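Example 3.2
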Amino acid sequence: MNIVHVIPIARGINKETLSYFTASEVQPGAVVKVPVRNRTLPALVVSVEPAEDMKSELKNSPFMIKKIGKLKMLPVFLPAFIEAAKDAAEYFAGSTGSVLASITSKSILEQSDKIDHAEMPITEQKAPETTPEPHALQADEEERVAHYKSLIREQFARKRSVFFCLPTIQDAKKMYEQLPKGIEEYTHVLNASLNKKELLATWNKIIGETHPVLIIMTGAFLGIPRHDIGLIIVERESSTSYKLQVRPYLDIRTFAEFFAKRVHAKLIFGDLLLRTETLWRTKNGEMAELSPLKFRSMSTAKDTLIDMKKYKLLEKPEFRIVSDELEALIKKNKESSEHMFILAARRGLSPMTVCGDCATTVICSRCSAPIILHHGAEGNYFLCHRCGERRSAEERCRICGSWKLTTLGIGIELIQDILTGMFPEVKFFRMDKDNVATHKQALSMAADFYNSPGSVLIGTEMALLYLEKPVANSGVAAIDSLFSIPDFRINERIMNILLKIRSITQRTFLVQTRSRDQHIFDYAIKGNLMDFYREEIEERKKLNYPPFSTLIKITIRGQKSQILQDMKAVEALLKEHEPLVFPAFIDTVNKKSILHALIKLKRDEWISKPLLAKLRSLPPHVSVNVDPESLL
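Structure, written as tokens:
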């Protein structure tokens, strides 16, 4: 009889290891099925001891040790991958099991007994004894792809495989169309769009291939056990999709660093504009430049910046949503049978409604988020983009009872309504989450757009994922509302959106704004990345934000009286770190209040073992987010 110590591969289990007994022989590294409460979960065996050696511990155990379930005798993970998961668990103040669950496909875990380990190559490529330092690559997409092709062939010549990580399924699809020419036989794609059967077949083919392979993947597939990893590429490094929004709030980019160190692989972060933290690390010698960083983004498009406030200076002032220049560009696009994209940053008719008498914002009755005005077949209605509450727009102010509700801001539906009225002969498409519900629908709309000369696609940020080919013309109709979001990363996000649109535009790139004093517009339309970085890093330094600090956000949700009490206990526990307590930007969701506490540490103070122990001791309803993407 053996006592088996395992790491449960699941979120929401705070214990690092659990123990079971079995009469079977099982080796560390095996994946087994274990009973946990009322569920059966996959778990990783970390150690095995004969029951005879633990008689006294078993006799004095306060709980009954259960029998282990279905056994899988061969390893699913590389030892280096498990060690990287442990590194990440410490960094993100979670458990190893929750990290493994975040970066391992659920379908693979469910089919672990069908993985064909017999096909795995017997000989392992010896990894280098030293780990290359991480590299940064900032350049236009065409130049980055050229670098990647060269690096992949270099690794193949050294008999090493390449892991190419991307933030979304659509990104992986687009990259697959550019990279594997000449090596199609050894190129594989792993992402959540594959069904269980396809995924298992691809997985088995990859681990059974004796030749080096190129794997184009999303973050959940970094654990595929290839013993010959020579290069890990994290492309579109600035994408917020790399930061997971569920516990343990893992950042795939950070995990990739831990993994690269453990397998002694070269690591490259690439993007048109890298994160401010990455650029700072490169300039301070923590990372190397793969090639000289490009701080000037080139474009063939003619750039035009329109100050919309000029319409208020007319003899008869007016509020205009479409400038004369944008109107002329749409006409020209139609006459030339070209394609045009117009960005609207926010959904709905208007992103905010306020009372004209008492200035109270109209909010959701369930989650307190500012509610958005939409237009439907039966008239206007309010919709909450946070929880989905929908109600009639025929209502009074909840504070003073006034009917004088005034809309503020410009939403995509309002832009669509105005443009279709101005240009009835133009075919308009609208791509946002309200109008396009699935990945398949988005692909279909994008295809229809490209097959319709003279057409215009109006879209939110999500549309940029589906613009696979360049457009002749583009316009930014409304993006100013994003500046009102109290988030220290918002300038970086806006800059990336503008640069992305500019990079896919061939002839004319037009930006409308009522915030002409924001330098970011000048930087974006000229592709001036250096001055943007200089301004952004100075602002971060003044406020002591990353990269000058490590942020840890602690969040409690529940009844207001209870979370206030719980937060006082958190403050007392962490008082030496001076946590700053504040309500969430949307402080109520589903009638539960939300309270945050923020700790700022010097970069070299994390990981602090004493602080880590305290964070891990917090009860399950208290969440800990290290390096949060947002403080809201």
